[in-house]
Amino acid sequence: MKKLLSLLLALSLSLGLAACAAPGGDPAPSQSSPPPVETETASATRTFTDSVGREVELPAEITKVAVSGPMAQMVLFALCPDKLVGIASEWDASAEAYLDTEYYNLPLLGQLYGGNGELNLETLLASGAQVVIDVGEPKDSIVEDLDALQEQTGVPFVHVSATIETMGDAYRLLGELVGMESEAETLAAYCDETYAMVRDIADQVEKVNLLYITGEAGLNVIAQGSYHAEIIDLLSNNLAVVDSPSSKGTGNEVDMEQLMLWDPDVIIFAPQSVYASVGDDPMWQSMSAIQSGRYYETPMGPYNWMGFPPSVQRYLGMLWMCKLLYPDAASYDLEEEVQEYFSLFYHCELTHEQYEALVANSIGKLAA
């Protein structure tokens, strides 16, 4: 019995020593060994202050980004397409000619404000998004809205304000947010320089009397003073003065009599409006712009260049509108400018044929 107990004790000690060995057979550190140095882990966080003063706790490294709407989608697609976990609204069908399929077919998340569909929280949570970013004009209820969604989902929500004048600073803040400061500065500098150039041209020309018309019947206008009218007001004498400018991309509805009373020198029609039919319509033919042939259609691809949504593509619209209305003052080569924009913001090398098709009913019309 004593021999058996001794054998069992020896076996127990042997197994205990084996269990304490580290992988590879090396002995485990003793109790007196110094503790391992602590390193930053994926769970590390930081505090980010957004444009409406909300302090939001974010992961130290952002690799998965969701967007709250099409404005944010366009802004962030330029900066960090590989971080996007989904899109807020489906790209226009024309986008397939410019975007890589991997981006064109991202999951649809829906949108927080406006549009036909609400933000799909189930899809959002399944996407693994580390942050949801809203970009543009802050709604009156933005703080309460984002706080409520953040509490409901456990996902951080942030807002970054951006106008046509402040888009450069918006990109700098977004670069800080997603950890891409250098890339953001490239886009910010482009926005600052383009706006300054167009602003300088606007200050030296006599602005034309103009209407921007939308809608299937051509009876909606983008009113002076609205967020959607920023570049229209900058580059023209926008005749559409109404009591309550609409905040929607569809603009304010008016009647034909009011359009005739305004009687602009130039009309710009939104895509999918009545541009193609007004030349043969007796009612429209009574207006000065139609009689003189000074009516044009906004280029479309992969978004309306003049906005709607009024996002970063409006820099492209500014360059186009400035060249269209004031060709002597706008001495730059528009095709080169458009190709640069597509490279920076859509990651696409635009061909000459694609450019010609985009401007066929505006700059191309002038050349013809």
UniProtKB/TrEMBL annotation:
Residues 1-21 form the signal peptide. Residues 64-329 form the Fe/B12 periplasmic-binding domain. Gene3D superfamilies: 1.20.58.2180, Nitrogenase molybdenum iron protein domain (3.40.50.1980). Keywords: Signal. It comes from the Bacteria. It holds the Pfam family Peripla_BP_2. Residues 24-44 are annotated as: Disordered. The keyword Signal applies. InterPro entries: ABC_Transporter_SBP (IPR050902), ABC_transptr_periplasmic_BD (IPR002491). Belongs to the bacterial solute-binding protein 8 family. This is ABC transporter substrate-binding protein. It comes from Flavonifractor hominis.
